[in-house]
User: Fold this.
Amino acid sequence: MPSTSSFVRSAVSKYKFGAHMSGAGGISNSVTNAFNTGCNSFAMFLKSPRKWVSPQYTQEEVNKFKKNCETYNYNPLTDVLPHGQYFINLANPDKEKAEKSYESFMDDLNRCEQLGVGLYNLHPGSTLKGDHQLQLKQLASYLNKAIKETKFVKIVLENMAGTGNLVGSSLVDLKEVIGMIEDKSRIGVCIDTCHTFAAGYDISTTEAFNNFWKEFDDVIGFKYLSAVHLNDSKAPLGANRDLHERLGQGYLGIDVFRMIAHSEYLQGIPIVLETPYENDEGYGNEIKLLEWLESKSENELLKDKEYVEKNKTLQKLGAKSRKEQLDKFEVKQKKRAGASKRKKATVEPGDNDILSQMTKKRKTKKE
Ligand SMILES: [Zn+2]
Ligand SMILES: [Zn+2]
Assistant:
């Protein structure tokens, strides 16, 4: 069912702020939902994120999607970033499972091209108990094959919050995979702010924020930066927990998002919210918050009472949750210190991202 909230799209923002939209009732509804939420870009699932196989789109639905993009002025090549299914794992050492992933992945890419969508966000998966380098090679060879079998869609690898065998928790993994891609015009990276912080890259202060992007440019290169996922983090730095929080309420805080809204290198690419909300109104308000942050000049912030108050209010809202996660993190660290020599546990692929919140949506929304 299309969203009923109504926010006006900004015509002056230099950034493509948007959010993950529901495509319930038909993929073309994601476009109208995005428009009604005030999105300048948006994401959606191409099919059910819970099932391996979903019915193909009808030609009528494809036409409707394209028509909606035209009507509401979204360029599907640059403004739409569908999210792949979480269980796709092209790095899986179990060949049969990797093949099954590839099938679903190819189906996603074909859907993108049917819709005329130019970007596709993928979790790079997990090498599980396999040899990390060998499995990265397998991932890259699947990506090369998929690129040859499709025409134009760019595969955008998302960085991850975990450790070790979860591919993309380290920027170096992404660099290595990109290095093995034959057609480099068809590969990119999406930086998720929550994943980045949870993986241990601090971005919470001005200095740390600038250092991270410098490191990103040194290791991967800005030319590969194709999108950003915007989430605050419920868990502290390096906790390896993928727990999205509403902007300003987590360990990142509002100033990180103000810096995002002032980073020239983020202009022109989709910047997509995946914060936990039960309806699109929350996203609409956060896009307005981002546009407000864009209007705030850095020099006068401390004197800006409205800004200081906003920061305080949001931090207060998230205080209880931050404390809970900090306590859990400290317990885990103590255990880790006690058992540091024990064998590393394997990390399962994929996080819960927006899937859990889409589940919540289902409970509150009629489809
Ligand atoms: Zn994300
Ligand atoms: Zn994701």
Remarks:
- The two ends are 5 Å apart (CA to CA).
